[in-house]
Amino acid sequence: MSTFQAPKGTYDLLPPHSATYLAVREAISAPLRNSGYGYIETPGFENVELFARGVGESTDIVTKEMYAFETKGGDRLALRPEGTASVLRAALEANLHKGGNLPVKLWYSGSYYRYERPQKGRYRHFSQVGAEAIGAEDPALDAELIILADQAYRSLGLRNFRILLNSLGDKECRPVYRAALQDFLRGLDLDDDTRRRVDINPLRVLDDKRESVRKQLTGAPALGDYLCEACKAYHEQVRELLTAAGVAFENDANLVRGLDYYTRTTFEFVHDGLGSQSAVGGGGRYDGLSEMIGGPALPSVGWALGVDRTVLALEAEGVTLDIPAATAVYAVPLGEEARRVLFAQVTALRKAGIATDFAFGGKGLKNAMKSANRSGARLALVAGERDLAEGVVQLKNLESGEQTAVPLDAVVDEVRRTLG
Ligand code: HAM
Question: Which CATH number fits domain 17-173+227-317: 3.30.930.10, 3.40.50.300, 3.30.470.20, 3.30.420.40?
Answer without folding.
Answer: 3.30.930.10
